Amino acid sequence: MSRVGKNPVEVPSGVEIAVKGRLVSAKGKLGQLEFEATDDVAIEVADGKVTVTPVNKSKQARAMWGTARSRVQNMVTGVSDGFTRELEINGVGYRAAVQGKSLNLQLGYSHDINFPIPEGISITCSKPTAITISGADKQKVGQVASEIRSFRPPEPYKGKGVKYAEETILRKEGKKK
What we know:
Layout: H1 3-6, E1 9-10, E2 16-20, E3 23-28, E4 31-36, E5 41-46, E6 49-54, H2 59-80, E7 83-90, E8 95-99, E9 102-106, E10 113-116, E11 121-127, E12 130-135, H3 138-150, E13 161-164
Antiparallel strand pairs: 1-6, 2-3, 3-4, 5-6, 7-12, 7-13, 8-9, 9-10, 11-12
């Protein structure tokens, strides 16, 4: 039994949910998101709540029950509040700046890295060593944060590189004389 799937998703005011067959769409102040559910779950909207139920008792249907409910919850939260990820840059001379529709990163390579900002994502740099990524789609925000981090992941000896703000780096001791 899915413990996540049992709970209905509360729809806040200002968010519209529409279900057409397997296609679920949410519209709010931060945009519009769509999600196509599998045939294993049934999704209904009633009294400002979205309920997800499995169609049969198969293992696949029970697995998709909680997954579909989480996807609907993320859509509702995304179009009403949005999602953010914070990145920190550590290292001498490492910095980031937003220039138009691209993020310019100086990460110790012989060249600057120009990362084009995808549609539906906003990136801000409050300091040259802090990057804030925000958007309505949780998956897209996480993917962009992961791609930026992958340009220079943090190394374990000095901690230099791009890391998530809440991430802790396991530090190693250097070689001894």
